[in-house]
Amino acid sequence: MIYMPNFELSGIQNWKQNIYIFLTGQFLSGITSMIVQYSIIWYLTMQTKSATILSVASILGMLPMILLSPFVGGLIDRSNKRALLIITDAIVAIFAVFLSIAGSLESSFPLWLVFVSLFMRAVAQTFQQPTIQSALPTMVPADELTRFNGQLGMIQSANFIIAPALGAFLFSIVSIQYLILLDVIGFIIGASLLLLVKIPDNSANAVTEVHAGQDAIFGLKKLRTRPGLWRITLIGTLFTLLFMPVGSMYPLMTVQYFHGTIAQAGIVEVVWSVGMLFGGAIIGIQKNWHNRMIPLIIAFFIVGITIGGSGLLPGTTLGFWIFIGLNGIAGFSVPFFNTMLMAMIQQSYPPEILGRIMGVFGSLMSIGGPIGLIFAGPLGDQIGVQNLFLIGGIGSVLCGILILFLPSARRYDLDLQSEINASEK
């Protein structure tokens, strides 16, 4: 079943104004959250300079997505989404206060408490992302989904641009125990704007009782009813297994391999995010795509070539600047995978079951990450972090080849658009 929203029934009088208030809130609250996230990772990088520690931190950040996502979808489908977003932001702010107090009482943060804080931030994110993704198709017309997913991607990319640059500056002049309190400011901003937003409530269309196990099985079965989308999901799981270790090693690649500074690590993140912003801008401007699988597949190859090439660079100043350029190109290609796939999923199912499907989807897409990270930390310490980039790049290219050789995956959007067109007649 595909989704075609009715805005007269949803009660949204001015949907454009409504969605732009929502996006503005995501932009403003996201900046503070990302600054805190970067600060914690940079703190671990400078204190330990260990690939293993960064791997553990990344694993803790992914475990909630893997373990909880299949079970939170039913709650999301049956809950007030605006309230759910506010509550999860409040949890992040509360733990930021705890961590800040602990850092003020001691000369350094207890490592276990840093890990607990990262874990709780990930728990909140596990609820927030599928909530946003399941709410979006109820707030914009179906033919605008790809474009507004692109604009949401632009918002997130802008956060990634501003947060590393501003975060690196603040990290150098503000004690981290005070910097962490930006999460409280982010909560106040985000909650205030969410109170102005109308998010249609589809919970009445769902069964009232929450059965976590049954909801997870339901979401898995629904996802598997579309073989092409199911195969794309499994390939995405493989991609996460091979590529996620690379994502966690960026600060160490800059500081250890290129002998750079935290400021230079921030530059790498900014350039990556600028690339994502331009990629998202193209998607946000272009309303209609004939076949969204084409840019999605190309994105796999671009990421593979640029990230794999980064692992072959010399650890020199020139190598570092080439590394920055390659990551800008890689960042440009990422939205063409994330945004296109998300829009196709949103058009493939009705909104009252989308939370359960997104929960299972998010878990499957993340499950390979910790497995790869368990081996990547010690392996990076042994063979060099740059070789992890080479492995991740080769893996991305292999994922692109797999989709090309699976017709149901390669043709998924064409088949989906045919189904949509047939339902409109």
Helical content (DSSP H or I, runs of 4+): over 70%
Report low-confidence residues grouped into runs of 5 or more.
1-10
User: H/E element string?
Assistant: HHHHHHHHHHHHHHHHHHH
What does the radius of gyration come to? Answer: 21 Å
Return the domain count.
1
Largest sheet: none
What's the average pLDDT?
81
Structural class by helix and strand composition: mainly alpha
The count of helical stretches stands at 19
First and last CA, distance: 15 Å
Strand content bin? under 5%
Query: Which fold name is given in CATH as the topology?
Result: Growth Hormone, Chain: A
What gross morphology would you assign?
Answer: globular
What is the number of E strands?
0
Pfam families: MFS_1
Subcellular location: Cell membrane
Domain Major facilitator superfamily (MFS) profile: 178-425
Main location: membrane
Structure overview:
- It is found in: Cell membrane.
- One of its GO terms (molecular function) is transmembrane transporter activity.
- Pfam families: MFS_1 (PF07690).
- The protein has 425 residues and is mostly helical.
- The chain has a single domain, classed as MFS general substrate transporter like domains (Growth Hormone, Chain: A), CATH 1.20.1250.20.
- It is built from 19 helices and no strands.
- Helix 2 packs parallel to helix 6 and helix 13 packs antiparallel against helix 17 (385-404).
- It is globular, with a radius of gyration of 21 Å.
- The protein starts with 6 loop residues before the first helix and ends with a helix.
